[in-house]
Design brief:
Elements: H1 7-23, H2 25-34, H3 43-67, H4 69-73, E1 77-81, E2 85-89, H5 91-115, H6 131-154, H7 160-187, H8 190-213, E3 217-218, E4 221-222, H9 228-260
Antiparallel strand pairs: 1-2, 2-3, 3-4
Length: about 260
């Protein structure tokens, strides 16, 4: 027990908490958006139950990954069509690839829905689901998002208690912030579009990670992962463009009102 109380473990815990918080932002964004599909009176409860259930399953997943890491490392199957597609696929690469593809599909579907004329009159009741359906989706996507953070965490520490503690603290932060993020998006619906584009980039990141881990080659070109720096820069550019555009629209509206009343 005393070997847990080391400076190295405390330092790793601090790094992991920061890592979980940063990597968990896109997850929190998804939870806030997806929970709006539940009935209005149960949205807060859906977010809480979704995060709590996902926390338990994340700890189970962490234990399974640490216990079966060698099994996960072995490819389930390989594809060798020279000049077309080549790669070796294990459990983690399949999670990355399928999870990334599903996230991109969800983001593109939502963006296209927002562009439909009929959507303008639907308000916040579009595509409403039951509480169970929303919670199940939040838990599923939480696990997909968390697989990336778990693998990243294991690269820093192999001590189960340290990694599990960082996951628990990150989940507690999600519980505290989920309602505030959801309220902000409800009052500022335009940022929901921004959130979907961020999720789209997250899907690309996961596809790149999965392709890299699988040594995937498409038509002679290696699939390379997007660096975290590039991801954060892309998100920063999206946010900056949205802020500048909003500011410009506000100025144009003020000028138009001033001209009208002149």
């Amino acid at each position: 027990m005393t070997e847990l109380w080391t400076i190295e473990n405390f330092a790793n815990l601090g790094v992991l908490i920061f890592l979980q918080a940063v990597l968990g932002f896109d997850n929190l964004l998804y939870i806030s958006i997806e929970s709006k599909r539940a009935p209005l009176e149960s949205q807060a409860a859906v977010r809480r139950w979704g995060i709590l259930i996902a926390l338990v399953l994340r700890l189970v997943l962490l234990f399974a990954v640490m216990a079966l890491v060698e099994t996960f490392a072995k490819p389930f199957f390989s594809i060798h069509l020279e000049g077309v597609i080549e790669g070796a696929f294990n459990f983690s690469t399949l999670v990355f690839l399928l999870g990334g593809a599903f996230i991109m599909y969800t983001a593109v579907k939502e963006i296209s829905h927002m562009l439909e004329v009929e959507h303008l009159d639907e308000g916040g009741d579009r595509g409403q689901k039951t509480q169970f359906e929303v919670i199940a989706m939040i838990v599923l996507m939480n696990l997909i998002f968390s697989f990336d953070s778990i693998l990243s965490a294991l690269a820093i520490s192999k001590v189960f208690v340290v990694v599990a503690t960082s996951i628990a603290i990150a989940s507690a932060l999600m519980l505290l912030l989920a309602d505030h993020v959801a309220e902000f998006l409800e009052k500022n619906r335009k940022y929901e579009v921004l959130g979907m584009f961020i999720l789209l980039i997250v899907g690309v990141v996961l596809l790149g990670e999965g392709g890299h881990e699988a040594h995937l080659t498409l038509f002679g070109y290696r699939v390379e992962p997007m660096s975290k720096a590039t991801f954060y820069f892309s998100v920063a550019v999206l946010v900056a463009v949205d802020v500048i555009q909003t500011s410009q629209q506000r100025k144009l509206a003020m000028q138009k009102n001033a001209t009208t009343h002149a």
